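Before relying on records like the one below, remember that each one covers exactly one chain. Contacts with other chains, cofactors or solvent are not represented anywhere in the record.
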Amino acid sequence: MPEGHTLRRLAGLLSDAFAGQRVGVSSPQGRFAADAALLNGATLLEADAAGKHLFIEFDDERIVHIHLGLIGRFDLATGIAPAPVGAVRLRLVAADHSAYADLRGATRCDLVGVAQREKVIASLGPDPLRPDSDPERAWRKISRSDRSIGDLLMDQAVLAGVGNVYRAEVLFRHKMHPLRPGRTLRRNQFQAIWDDLVDLMRDGVRTGRIDTVRPEHTPEAMGREPRKDDHGGEVYVYRRTGQPCLLCTKPIRIETLAGRNSFWCPGCQPVFRSRAHLQ
């Protein structure tokens, strides 16, 4: 599933291509046809993202709410739009035919109003990519929870936009085992994770990929081969099961956590033991 940086980057690209223009809106597949007809020729004001949700706002307070889900994609291209290929749920075409965008496979594509958009955003935890986010909201939930930090970071009602890659990588960067209970974190530990996510995800928006290794651990700095994976990006643990840790050389492990694969290093991320347990 695309993580929050992908939606934020997509929102920016859609705004750059269509904002301020009257846009052709259609649904070649037909599943969004009635609402597309209402929007066809309307002015697209802007696109925005909150967590893994995308909002495309048109005039008269009409908003298309999109969630890509596991297989959804929203492809933006320049030039005159060709005949649609495949199940295109939503097509946007710039008035000057300079760009078009095709949505396929999304789990959600609905025409909503401002109230519904605000309701969706209110249901989410703070998003590291939104300047109006208050990390204290996430901390209050994490600090009171017996659930693992690996589980909590993936809960969109706790913290929005973080997916499996950022979860695995930020926990490695902070030497934290994914099964450590949220209530055992100190406030400064959470703040460091939050600040790191802000920086990492902003980099993801800028580059369009997830790179989480520090400068001293890049292939060039370490004299190693670049990572070969369809995910792309240089990472410490994500999808590196059985490979040696870049720091301690112990094999990376994998375990199912909250229905998703969780990756960690047993050397750099030891199992948490509370002081009370050790006494």
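DSSP finds nine helices and ten strands in the chain.
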